[in-house]
């Protein structure tokens, strides 16, 4: 009986404490990438596919379109950035290590630097698409433009523990 009462109290307190219109907030970290928080909860990593945000934005088609564009631009940025970093870092590291600078190193550094610039451009566009998706979702939640999910009780598993959420 006590455990049932404790669980019931936890659900009620969570429902009261959880905001009715859970806003999504995003922040960027230089080394960890984009993170999002729903209704002031703990920040989670967005990732290239943005799976957590996709499941949250199910009712908003324009938000999902912007998230798809974000995923595409992030993937293209990774495709350009990883080889660019390799081609730029190899000759610089060899030069620091004491090897003589050759014309091949110059070519590798120029191509790698160009790919890094392309990566920065793709990731800048991806960041604007992510901000657009979140802005559209938050404005839609405030105005009731897209359908809200039915009442549900959810349990989310994070890296650092569990969280219980209730939406109505």
What is the topological layout?
Blueprint: H1 2-17, E1 24-29, E2 33-38, E3 44-45, H2 51-56, H3 61-96, H4 103-143, E4 152-158, E5 161-167
Antiparallel strand pairs: 1-2, 2-3, 4-5
Helix pairs in contact: 3-4
Q: Outline, from the CA principal axes?
A: elongated
How can the largest sheet be summarized?
A: 3 strands, antiparallel
What is the tally of beta strands?
Answer: 5
Uncertain parts: 16-20, 147-151
Instruction: Kindly name the structural category.
Output: alpha+beta
| N-to-C series of helices and strands | HEEEHHHEE
Radius of gyration over C-alpha positions, nearest whole angstrom: 22 Å
What percentage of residues falls in helices of 4 or more residues? 55-70%
Termini separation comes to 27 Å
Strand content: 15-25%
Count of spatially separate domains: 1
Q: What does the average pLDDT come to?
A: 79
* Strand arrangement across the biggest beta sheet: 1-2-3
Helices, by number, come to: 4
């Amino acid at each position: 009986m006590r455990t049932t009462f404790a669980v019931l109290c936890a659900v009620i307190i969570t429902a009261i404490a959880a905001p009715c219109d859970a806003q999504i907030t995003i922040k960027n970290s230089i080394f960890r990438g984009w993170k999002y928080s729903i209704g002031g909860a703990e920040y989670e990593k967005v990732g290239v596919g943005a799976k957590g945000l996709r499941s949250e934005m199910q009712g908003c088609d324009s938000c999902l379109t912007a998230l798809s564009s974000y995923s595409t631009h992030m993937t293209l940025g990774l495709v350009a950035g990883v080889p660019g970093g390799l081609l730029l870092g190899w000759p610089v590291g060899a030069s620091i290590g004491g090897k003589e600078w050759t014309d091949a190193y110059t070519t590798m550094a120029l191509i790698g630097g160009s790919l890094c610039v392309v990566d920065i451009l793709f990731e800048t566009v991806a960041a604007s698409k992510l901000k657009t998706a979140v802005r559209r979702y938050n404005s839609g939640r405030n105005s009731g433009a897209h359908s809200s999910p039915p009442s549900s009780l959810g349990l989310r598993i994070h890296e650092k523990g569990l969280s219980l959420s209730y939406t109505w």
